[in-house]
Design goal:
This protein is of the alpha/beta class. It has 2 domains: about 15-175, SPOUT methyltransferase, trefoil knot domain (Alpha/beta knot); about 190-250, Helicase, Ruva Protein, domain 3 (Orthogonal Bundle), CATH 1.10.8. Helices cover about 40% and strands about 10% of the residues. It has 10 helices and 7 strands. The protein has helices spanning about 25-35, 55-60, 65-70, 75-80, 105-115, 135, 155-170, 190-205, 215-230, 235-250; strands at about 15-20, 45, 70-75, 85-90, 100, 120-125, 140-145. Strands 3-2-1-6-4-7-5 form a 7-stranded parallel β-sheet. It is elongated and about 70 Å long.
Length: about 260
């Protein structure tokens, strides 16, 4: 449908849209068009198969050049969400993970609330053929599912992005005019959470916690999901890192201080 008015100031901003290993430049362009229709301009690309920039993406975007020009490349989904506080993962299949799930409408309302408090949000979308991998879904706080015909619920990439973007745009008037953040410390970023998890998982490897070895991937995902659900603050992360450090160092001597060790 036609309806663009280049004389008007565009709506910009919104949650980050993260396309993980998109296969076709054309699909990236159509997703960018869907984003701009909805006032979303933060496009993040993780290892696009056909490289970037892409001529097919520009053609398919049909004028959504602002989105493509500001698109950022990342080597992994983890890197793409490192600065975000709340992340949703789009999936049409039951991944047997203990995570809350939301529809695009419910997610959009929560995004509006969080972003009104200055807490950045984003949505992960997987490759067209197979979707996100489990180790990418585990990065998210909430699963994003679309209630459609159970016998035919498949969406193409641009459709999925448009559904989320539409609900985001429609939820604009649902944001309360004033909110109060009663937290005494800011929420932890994904990067800070990843730093703690690296420390914790590394320490667990040192004590041979992951037994039998073949169960390590599922055990790691379970641990990560526990802390993803915890809604940790920056202070929480510092406290937990200190706890892990003390546990690894072992008990203190009677005097209360450990002796410094010298390495010659």
């Amino acid at each position: 449908m036609a309806g663009s008015d280049r004389r008007r100031e565009p709506v910009t901003g919104g949650p980050a849209i993260v396309l993980v290993r998109p296969q076709l430049g054309m699909n990236i362009g159509m997703a960018a068009r869907a984003m701009f229709n909805s006032g979303l301009t933060d496009l993040r690309l993780v290892s696009p198969r056909d490289g970037w920039p892409n001529k097919e993406a520009i053609a398919a975007a049909s004028g959504a050049n602002l989105v493509l020009e500001n698109a950022r490349l990342f080597p992994s989904a983890q890197a793409a969400v490192a600065d975000l506080r709340h992340v949703w993962a789009s999936t049409a299949r039951d991944r047997y993970m203990l995570k809350p799930a939301a529809t695009p409408k419910g997610a959009a309302l929560r995004m509006r609330e969080w972003m009104a408090l200055g807490e950045p949000c984003g949505v992960l979308f997987g490759p067209e053929r197979a979707g996100l991998e489990n180790d990418e879904i585990v990065l998210a706080d909430t699963l994003l599912t679309v209630p459609l015909n159970p016998a035919f619920a498949s969406l193409n990439l641009a459709q999925a992005v448009l559904l989320v973007g539409y609900e985001w745009f429609q939820a604009g008037d649902a944001t309360p005019p004033e909110q109060f953040n009663t937290r005494k410390t800011r929420p932890a970023t994904k990067d800070e959470l990843e730093g703690f998890l690296d420390q914790l998982l590394g320490s667990l490897v040192q004590v041979s916690y992951f037994r039998p070895p073949e169960k390590k991937p599922s055990m790691v995902r379970s641990i990560r999901n526990i802390f993803q659900r915890a809604d940790l603050t920056e202070q929480d992360i510092r406290t937990l890192r200190g706890i892990v450090k003390e546990l690894v160092a072992g008990p203190r001597p009677a005097g209360g201080r450990r002796r410094a060790t010298r390495s010659d």
